[in-house]
Specification:
Catalyzes the conversion of GlcNAc-PP-undecaprenol into ManNAc-GlcNAc-PP-undecaprenol, the first committed lipid intermediate in the de novo synthesis of teichoic acid. With about 190 residues, the chain is an alpha/beta fold. The chain contains nine helices and eight strands. It has one domain: Rossmann fold (3-Layer(aba) Sandwich). Bound molecules: uridine-5'-diphosphate (UDP). The site of uridine-5'-diphosphate has 15 residues, from helix 9.
Length: about 190
């Protein structure tokens, strides 16, 4: 997929529809995938912290999660087609997973938030397979979580652990699993749980 570089961060030049359809193919092929939904804060963090820059360079796709990114792309004369917000993409993917029978694992946020978010998803997308969830307060090297994911074999893993923490967790978890589209979704579970 073509990209537009903003301060060294390569953004996918894709509409929401194109992004979802690229991810649908990866899900069909059970191809391990790392998606970063990046807002201007993430771009600045990547500029300032080389470790974080290296971490997100490993992403298969970086989407423009914020109008600031779309405006910056326009200013440098390499426009991105539209904003591809993590929260909206998450909903598109829930709908897709419910329709195609793909399983979902949700990790992140406070315990009562994740419980509320899972209930909301089950209410909004009847029949969706949530094969596991857990709150986001754990040591990053906690091996029990990896074991849980290896057993559950989710097709889609949504990680809402906050910026940088979620990307770091995804990068260290991916080598231990055989499949899964992993996406960092920031504060999305808080919004979902309401
Ligand atoms: N969060 C988490 N574990 C942590 C820190 C944060 O699960 O160790 C969750 C937090 O509860 C919230 C989400 O990550 O649901 C996003 O947090 P925040 O808005 O602080 O992060 P940002 O993405 O703005 O950095």
């Amino acid at each position: 997929m073509e990209t537009v570089s903003i301060l060294g961060v390569p953004f996918a030049k894709a509409t929401m529809q194109e992004m979802v359809s690229a991810l649908e193919s990866r899900l069909e092929q059970q191809q391990k995938t790392f998606v970063v939904t990046a807002n201007p804060e993430i771009v600045m963090q990547a500029r300032d912290k080389p470790d974080f820059q290296r971490c997100i360079q490993q992403a298969d796709y970086i989407t423009a999660d914020g109008i600031g990114v779309v405006k910056a792309a326009q200013m440098i004369g390499q426009p991105l087609p539209e904003r591809v917000a993590g929260y909206d993409m998450m909903h598109e993917l829930f709908a897709l997973c419910a329709k195609r029978g793909w399983s979902v694992y949700m990790i992140g946020a406070e315990e009562e938030v994740i419980v509320g978010a899972v209930e909301k998803v089950q209410e909004l997308y009847p029949g969706i397979k949530i094969v596991g969830y857990r709150n986001g307060f754990f040591e990053l090297d906690d091996q029990t979580i990896i074991a849980d994911i290896q057993q559950a074999k989710p097709d889609l893993v949504l990680a809402a652990l906050g910026m940088a923490r979620q990307e770091e967790w995804i990068v260290q978890t991916l080598p231990a699993v055989d499949q899964g589209v992993f996406i960092g979704v920031g504060g999305s579970f808080d919004v979902l749980a309401g």
